[in-house]
Amino acid sequence: MTSPLPVLDPAARDKLIIEARKKAILDDFAYFCTFVETEEGPLPDWPYIQEDVIPAVNSLKSLIWLKRRQVLATWVMAAALVWIGLHPSWHSGVSSKDEDETKEVIRRVEFILLHLPAWLRPKFSGRDPVRIKHAGMGRESIIQPYAATAAAGVGRAFKFFLFDEFAFHPYGKTNLSAVLPAIQNSGGMVAITSTSDPKLSQSGAMFDEWTRALEQNSTFTPIFTGRYCRPDQGPEVLEAFQVDSPDDDTFNAFYPEKWQDAFTARQGLVFGKDSTGDFIFLPERNMKEPEVSWRNCLWRVVGIDPGGEDPSAIVPVGLWKPTGFLHPYTDRYHSYGSYQSREAMSVGEVEDILKEINAKGRIHLVLVDPSQRMVGKTLADRGWPVEMANNDRSVIFLVRDLFKRGQFTFNPKDEGLLDELLTTEWKASRGEYAFSSSSGRLRFRTPSRHHADRLDALRYAIAGIRDFYPKERAGERGQPPLLKASQVLTKAGNVLV
Question: Where are the CATH 3.40.50.300 domain residues in the chain?
Fold first, then answer.
């Protein structure tokens, strides 16, 4: 005969329930967030909070959160600081762009603590630091605010460190380097949150850490919340924000649609605005699927930047109207407008790609970077119709004109080419353009993640079309050489659409 189950009095039963809830809360940041109150009410369960931010905090994964303004990021991170503090002896640090902003984070931490349910609310004291007491254990957890100085966070052990508004932090990179070893030793996490600083464009610690995260060259998980991420703010609300912004560049930086917009000040860009203030490149005008296949283009040209110490790029460009309508065609990656590798390709690798392209439609002309004459000569000796490319950078003005006239389009999914278009700048501000005082050449500046290799190969191809297609139509170039059987693949690869 089994013994009857013990009957608990209500107080004992409630205590067991509370302890079970507390244990579940310590294991689940998402569950804890259901008890978090902000000054505007309960913490919203918006998709980007639930699906991106909360899982990263729950698993103690370091994150870098590039955000538009007003996404409740500070409230979510204040909740994370409190949740970490509910674990005995889990210590946190927080630093923002200045003392007032750091105090504001701590004020929100205190607000959350004060508005937790009574059964969950711990005893706590102080603001510098906040000390959360753990009853019956003789232990506490500390949330330490730090001023924006070069020494912030040095020599301390943390389970969690928050860098708030990192793009505006005067010592962000130095502080991050100081904090990371202690975080790694404790198995904890760093959270970097920020809008972009419009004045910095593609420079500064936020841009560097964001691009490293995107390239998986760091331990940070990248999270981007763009212009329309808030389900309670439609286009009409954003239009009101835009009216109140000092200029379009600032609005695009603070409310970016794509992450690239956050780091792109349109003035100073090669493909930004012209001297009249008109946009040179517009996605709705210049990002389109090709209207004809590669095989059906009137003329098919391939630009090659073999790279050397930079990435290699091969861009096939088709001319599909005699009046100069151009489109770079998709390569083996399908969604990209060029082939790009991290290491320079051998001549054999270049030729393999040319064979694949040629199998989809005969190549009329191959333009090779003029600094790589050995590559060009080798390909020519093997029977390819090679010319050394015209490296006159003023061709970039032809590309700009083609963009503005709508005669140059590229694949909407070509993120690589789009990235180079949106981030290549004039190197110095001398009117609209920048020239070298010694050589007179146009000077460009690119972020560290690329060297405009796709754009260089594209420029070679377009210069080739400009210089040689009129001669081709007039019959002045003669017939291109017949390719050998070894230069044509028996089965076309999935290189071009």
Answer: 10-262
* All CATH 3.30.420.280 domain ranges in the chain, comma separated: 286-487
Angstrom CA distances, 166 to 77, 108, 176, 183, 223, stand at: 13, 18, 10, 18, 14
Measured CA to CA, the distance from residue 184 to residue 70 in angstroms comes to 31
More confident residue, 24 or 8: 24
Residue 490 pLDDT > 90: no
112 Cβ neighbours under 8 A, 6+ residues apart: 36, 37, 38, 75, 78, 79, 82
Other CB atoms within a 10 A radius of the CB of residue 251 amount to 20
Tokens (6 digits) for 261: 């917009």
The architecture that CATH gives domain 10-262 is 3-Layer(aba) Sandwich (3.40)
Q: How confident is the model at residue 385 (pLDDT cuts 50, 70, 90)?
A: very high
The rounded distance, in Å, linking the Cα atoms of 77 and 108 is: 9
What gap in Å lies between CA 37 and CA 79, rounded to an integer?
A: 9
Give the pLDDT confidence of 69-128 residue by residue, as tens digits. 999 999 999 999 999 999 999 999 999 999 999 999 999 999 999 999 999 999 999 888
371 alpha-carbon distance from chain centroid? 31
Determine if residue 62 is left, alpha or beta; phi over 0 gives left, psi from -120 to 50 gives alpha, anything else beta. beta
Select from 1.10.3470.10, 3.30.360.10, 3.40.50.2000, 3.30.420.280 the CATH code of 286-487: 3.30.420.280
